[in-house]
Amino acid sequence: MTARTMPLHDDRPPPARFAYDRHSWKEIAHLLTNLPVGIVGFVYAVTVLSVGAGLTVTVVGLPLLAFGLLGARRFGRFERTRARKLLGVRVEEPSPMPGIGGRGFPSWLWTSLKDPVGWRAMLYAFLRLPWGICTFVITVAGLFVFWPVLPFVVRGLTHVDRALVRGLLCPSDELERRIAELESDRGVVVDTAAADLRRIERDLHDGAQARLVALAMGLGLAKEKLTEDPDAAAAMVDEAHGEVKLALQELRDLARGIHPAVLTDRGLNAALSSLAARCTVPVHVTADLPTRPAAAIEGSAYFTVSELLQNVSKHSGARSASVEVWRAKDRLLIQVRDDGKGGARLDGGSGLAGLADRLGAVDGLFVIDSPPGGPTTITAELPWRDRTADTASGVRRG
């Protein structure tokens, strides 16, 4: 979501007068503090860029630069606060950068390095020092030399400060960061789709395909023995019949892993109840959805719960679990709880990091609350899109 760039209300200062009112003194204070703030910002920017760029040949260079850009964001926030208190300039704060835990370090690093808010704050820090020297010298000279007209000079100088804040620290380019996030998310989606295709290929090759090959060979042998040894041929046919049943079951399981028929036919509530019935831990399902979401959102919710319940079965040691699904305005919320041993983490090897990446790729959220000793509560959030609107758009495309 892009931030609005319009001020909350009219922040234009009153016209300058010969008398020194509180607005004039605030502006003078701002111009006098430009120099120390400019020195700090300039030194920080030069240090971050020189050290980060110099160490890019090592593994620590780019992370240092990324954290430096986060620091530049904090400097920009300080400057927005200073401008708001002393100059009356009110600009909205940019949306925060996503954390490392919800996206994975490589994705976070790439997004941080392309963050326009951080780079614009870095440019502001560079420009602040020469401008700060200029405003400090003029203001100090005005206090002792041209005192009567200083309010008019100060007003003109602070207009430049206001323009710098609005031009470089206003979140007008949030769309650029959002595009960078979406580019990173697209890579996650592509990688996830490729991994799913490899899994399907592996399951077919090692499972149903291998059984069908063995079945063909067995039926061939049974055909040769049909006249010589009917009893042996009948036994081989009976064994082949069992292999056919196993192959069909594996194909059903594979199809369910791609997109279960119960989800398409009966919706998320029935599909989640089917998942709960197959879980090794008793699961209570509550789905409060007045309408069905779009098929893509429904499928994402289903596979999210499927993976979480698999983790409950394999890793939690729980005696019971629950699944709740509900709609809150334009979001679909999923909460899976269990009374197990807790300690679930994104880096715990349980596949939660990959699940968080996939949810992040569709503008979702993933939150883990799992203290040691339990219980564990995992909340997932997906954007809501109505199935009717999705179907209508599909008809229009057709």
Most strands sheet: 5 strands, mixed
Tertiary shape? elongated
Distance between the termini: 30 Å
Write down how many β-strands occur, each being a DSSP E stretch of 2 or more residues.
5
Describe the 3D structure.
The chain is an alpha+beta fold and 398 residues long. The protein has three domains: 22-172, no CATH class; 187-258, Single alpha-helices involved in coiled-coils or other helix-helix interfaces (Up-down Bundle), CATH 1.20.5; 266-397, Heat Shock Protein 90 (2-Layer Sandwich), CATH 3.30.565.10. The chain has twelve helices and five strands. The chain has a five-stranded mixed β-sheet with strand order 1-2-3-5-4. The longest helix has 52 residues, at 174-225. Mean pLDDT is 78; it is low at 1-10 and 389-398.
